[in-house]
Specification:
- The structure holds 2 protein chains of 2 kinds.
- Chain A is of the alpha+beta class.
- Chain A has 7 domains: 2-244, no CATH class; 249-274; 279-377, 2-Layer Sandwich (Beta-Lactamase), CATH 3.30.450; 396-505, Beta-Lactamase (2-Layer Sandwich), CATH 3.30.450.20; 525-632, PAS domain (Beta-Lactamase, 2-Layer Sandwich); 633-723, Helix Hairpins, CATH 1.10.287; 726-874, Heat Shock Protein 90 (2-Layer Sandwich), CATH 3.30.565.10.
- Chain A has 29 helices and 25 strands.
- A 6-stranded antiparallel sheet of chain A has the order 14-13-18-17-16-15, sandwiched between helices. In chain A, strands 4-3-7-6-5 form a 5-stranded antiparallel sheet, sandwiched between helices.
- In chain A, strand 17 and strand 18 form a beta hairpin.
- The longest helix of chain A is centred in the last third of the chain and has 56 residues, at 634-689.
- Chain B has one domain (3-131): Rossmann fold (3-Layer(aba) Sandwich).
- Chain B has a 5-stranded parallel sheet, with helices on both faces.
- Chain B starts with a strand and ends with a helix.
- The mean pLDDT of chain B is 89.
- Classes of the chains: A alpha+beta, B alpha/beta.
Amino acid sequence: MYVVLSTLILLLIVSTCILLLFNLRNRLGLAPLYILLGGIQYFQINIDYIEPYMILGEFPVFPQSIVLFSAMLFAVLLIYIKEGVESARILIIAILISSAFIIGLFEIAAIQDYFIRNTNRTGDVNFTLFPNLNFKVFFIGTFLLFFDFILLTSIYQFLISKIDKKHYFLILLLSLWSVLIFDAFAFHTVLFFGTSKYTVALIGNFIAKTLSAVIFSLILFLYLKYIDKVFETTSFIANQNREVLSILNYKKKYLDLKVEKKISEKKISAQYEKTLTSISDGITTLDTNWCYTYVNKQAGKFVGRTPESLMGKHIWSEFPEVVSLPFYNACLNAFKSQKAHISVEYFSSYGKWFENRIYPTPDGLTIYFTDITEKKVIEKALVESEAFNKGILSSLTAHIAVIDKTGEVLAVNKAWNDYSVNNGGHNYESTLVGSNYIEVCKHGISEGDELSQNILDGLMSVLNQKTRHFEIEYPCHYKDEKRWFTMHVEPFGTELDKLVISHNNITQLKITEEKLERTNLKLKEAQRMAKLGNWEYNPITKEIFFSDEIYQIFELDKNSPQNLYKRYKSKCILENENAIDELVSNAIKNETGYTIGYFINSNEISQKYIQEVGEIVKDENSNVILKGTIQDITKDKLISDELTQSNEELLKINTELDRFVYSASHDLRSPLTSLQGLIQVLEMQIDTSGKVDKEPINLMTQTIDKMDKFIADILDYSLNTRTELAHEKINFESLIKSSYEDLKYMDLDYKPKLTLDIKQTVDFLSDPKRISIILNNLISNAFKYHDKNKKNHFLNVFITVDDKNVIIDIEDNGIGIKEEYIDKVFDMFHRATTLSTGSGMGLYIVKETIEKLKGSIHIISEFEKGTKFSIILPNSL
Amino acid sequence: MKLKEIMLVDDNSIDNYVSKIVTEKENIAETITVKSSAIEALEYLKTKADNFPELIFLDIKMPIMDGFGFLLEFSKFTVDKKANCAIVMLSSSISNEDMEAASNDQHVIDYLSKPLNKDKLTKVLDILIQKK
């Protein structure tokens, strides 16, 4: 019992000493531990001779030896785990050296003692050299110890790489136990194999060493876990990733690594520097006193300073203007809270936007500046453009929706929504966002709506990318309102798997279109009725437009692909084949219009007569365009030809008649004058004889004169119709006087008193011959039809001339005209009185002549009192 | 005053007869030559060595060559021959055109309508005297 207790006390002391020294390694170094362990080794070797303890009464063990040996393994394992390969190796060598050194010293001391004893001849003469040491045991033990150390670290390394760290105690136990057992086996086999002690000693050792292993590994585990807290450090796990035999080959690798590390460190730091300077971000680090400890090139550039000039400077002193910015507070907060801050703000002094990422570090702050001015500008533009798009979409009158390939309405614009709302709840629900457009179409199809079918087909063809675009026009009358819409469908999205649908209200357009169509129809009708077509020719593009009626007139096929102008020309019958070409090119060159008539070949009536009018019109770009009409005037042409012909015939007849009247009257007059001459001769001869009654001769003369006057009247008449109007100055006074004088001799018994009053301030221009015909006739009438019952005859002529007219009043106190005849006095061959000696032509000629002069005549007459003619003639001044 | 010679040119023999008697009655000329056509009258004038008649009464309407044809031929005679020769148109035509055409000829001094009588003859002589 005491043995067990003392063994336990020994174990505790040794392990406590080891752990104490290990814990103090930072202050004392590991040397005391090495020495302690060396001492333990020496002590362990020299306790072989002591009395063994019988476990279970029959298996001999040396508890002290086992405790000390286990303690050494424990120490090595501790060092290996905690201090690494290098320290463990030193420890192993230190143990071996120190134990060897102590043994050596002891042996020398013993030899010295031997020789002193021999010299003194005192003491036991049998005292042997090296009395305590079993060298065989020592060497084997030492060698085995060395091997055990290596085995221990290797097994540990092996186990830790294979077994989960959760079972760390097991790893420790197995490592210690396997080495202890191996050692017991090896040691006893070498020293005691074949002896009677061998088996029992082996069993005893197994039991004792197992116990020892359990206890030491428990101590080690508890120490590592609760005192050293080794599991909580990250380096612990990393250190366990060593090679199994790292205790042997660690050194070389370590050196290689050292060199490699140095090179790569150099490389990394160079790269690091390079990266920091070349990075587009500005990077600065600040210490806890707000002084710069690092400024990269870019950061310097941002603030317009060199990095060197900023190093060590106080940031807020260098840039006081920044203190007022949120950036300052962000830095303070990051520093206080030790949390990263990001601030985005505009630095007006640099005219730039920066994103500042502020990271607290143990030494102060690290700040990354990113120039996001460009990004901000783009962002702003993007926001604006988005607002713009949104604004446009909502301001559009077209109803726009986006649907996906399943038909779901993804988005709609304002007009779409408004339309849905205005067209009733049902419509609204079936077209709002989230409803299914294709389903609505299918619903329509199930109700037999053909339009829905067409729309669905269109949607699918665009969705399946069979067409790029789909458009349909459809009526959508609501209540009493007539409406028409167009629907456009276009693919949308990067995959083109969505559709943009837009509905446009085209009612106004449609109404206008219908109106236009009606107007066009009317125009067509009018053209058809008038056989009139219009055409256009663009000299630049050579394009020709014919209205439908032209095709009809020319009997041309509108749909024929052949050249229209050639076909048109082939129909025309022209003397000069290029007449039309020349006409057109001249019109364009001189910018003048033209009119041309020509015949064309016709299957219907062999030939048609065409009147073509061309006019120059300028379009909005001042380009010359030829526009005109073509009219089928065959009927008019026939009529006008006939008219022209009959007119010509009439003219010919008239001329012949005139010539006949002239020559007939002349030829009739000629014998009359001869007769007058003969009567004259006869009178002359009678005068000489003086015996004959001259009355028959006078009557003959009168008859001949009357006939002569009649012929003269006819000549006057013919002259009036035949000759052109003259424009000469009229001297009324001389005309009237000569007329009066000529007539004075006509009847010697009658001489009316002539009163002539002419009021004239301007010249009067007219045809003198015709004026004198009028005046002669009227004045001669006054002579002819004077009242023989009256004594004082008068003839008043009042003439008033102004620049427009002349008014001629001729008044007499003759026989007058009976009322019933007044209307007829101007008729040809009418004679209103039995007293008349006239031809019945006089007043007729007067009236005709006045009409020719575009004047007028009025007559006021009272039977047996007198007659007054009032004439108004225009002044052709 | 008495003229040396008066010539009457008219295809109508009755008119020539009347004109001749009227002229003779008035006794204004020593000789009265009567020609029944313009051609005959022209030939007479061409053969005439001494002076032309001082007065010629010329009709307008005549066959083959009318009065205006005669005037055209007459204008071709030398100035000295026709210096003392005046022509009076004597026609039954009262056409304006004829009158105007006649008045445009420098040798025509008057236009008379037939028949010739004492008054008309006196008027012609007055003009002739004024002219001289």
